[in-house]
Specification:
disordered N terminus, signal, about 160 residues, 3 helices, about 15% helix, Isomerase, eight-stranded antiparallel beta barrel, Lipocalin, mainly beta
């Protein structure tokens, strides 16, 4: 399990997916370790932010999650990933197209770089929009981590690594 200084998609996360997120609130960048930030602030928006990478032609694979203000356990991650056929990836092309690839199928969408440094992603789910604001931070191991946040408060998000 990748830790933000330590997703299976639960019902709580699925319920939060309909909450529109167009842009991230202002993100404070400090030098505190990421886990300490989450413990103190209890919001993904407060994570130290890495520079947004070039998203063109990249593949990001599921690495964990943060649900209702707490990190997912390994058992929750395993259960959620199994529910999605063992695969959960976000892919981005050079023309602004995005895909959410799951074991049971693929959702198509678009992405764009936002003025606040995040990446806005919208997937089409049977005519409904699934919206994410993606920010970037680091794992304890120094690996770049994409956090796809699905709610305004920053209490729900999915972690991805390249």
């Amino acid at each position: 399990m990748k830790r933000i200084t330590s997703l299976a998609l639960s019902a709580a996360l699925l319920a939060s997916l309909s909450t529109p997120v167009l842009a991230a609130p202002a993100i404070s960048v400090d030098t505190a370790p990421t886990a300490a930030v989450l413990e103190e602030e209890n919001s993904l928006w407060e994570l130290p932010q890495a520079d947004t990478p070039d998203m063109s032609n990249t593949v990001w694979s599921f690495a964990g999650g943060y649900i209702d203000g707490g990190e997912m356990t390994q058992a929750e991650m395993d259960e959620s990933l199994a529910a999605y056929g063992g695969t959960l990836q976000f892919t981005f092309d050079a023309a602004g197209g995005a895909k959410m690839i799951q074991g049971g199928g693929t959702l198509n969408g678009t992405y764009q770089y936002l003025d606040d440094g995040s990446v806005g992603v919208i997937f089409d789910y049977n005519g409904e929009e699934l919206r994410y604001a993606c920010i970037f931070t680091w794992t304890d191991e120094g690996e770049l981590l994409m956090v796809a946040i699905s709610d305004v408060e920053g209490a729900d998000g999915i972690y991805f690594v390249r």
